[in-house]
Design brief:
The chain is mainly β and 131 residues long. Helix content is 0%, strand content 50%. Strand 1 (4-9) and strand 2 form a beta hairpin. The chain is elongated, with a radius of gyration of 24 Å.
Length: 131
């Protein structure tokens, strides 16, 4: 099978692909599962501010897990926005004093994301990212 590339799958099947005439040796490419990229939960609370836009520049899809507290009795609404699209909304009515609420989301590679506040009264309780 000179001049061909043979692709062998992890399941044991194979397919031969004819190459141009300048290829003079057989080459074997083993195709299997994609390598797993190590990820870990990172506490980024100290680096996050409500209303600030962040970019997922990690080169991999990340998960975010956030929680917020409404320290006043005022109504409040927070929105998670990814690439200009509202992904999730949490609200406190007038009785939300110190009641924590959470937002979880997947952020694709290269996407921008932020949490916006309607009345600037909620505070970040936790903000971790699987990076």
């Amino acid at each position: 099978m000179a001049g061909a590339i043979k692709v062998i799958s992890a399941a044991g099947g194979s397919v031969s692909i004819q190459a141009d005439d300048t290829l003079t040796t057989d080459e074997v490419l083993i195709v299997g599962e994609a390598p797993q990229v190590p990820q870990a939960w990172v506490d980024v609370k100290a680096e996050r501010v409500i209303g600030t836009t962040y970019t997922n520049d990690t080169g991999k899809v990340i998960q975010i897990s956030t929680s917020f507290i409404q320290p006043t009795i005022e109504a409040e609404q927070l929105s998670l926005i990814v690439e200009g699209v509202i992904i999730s909304v949490i609200r406190w009515q007038d009785s939300g004093l110190n009641n924590a609420k959470s937002i979880y989301a997947t952020i694709p590679v290269g996407n921008v994301y932020r949490v916006d506040s309607a009345s600037d009264t909620a505070t970040i309780n936790t903000w971790t990212e699987l990076r």
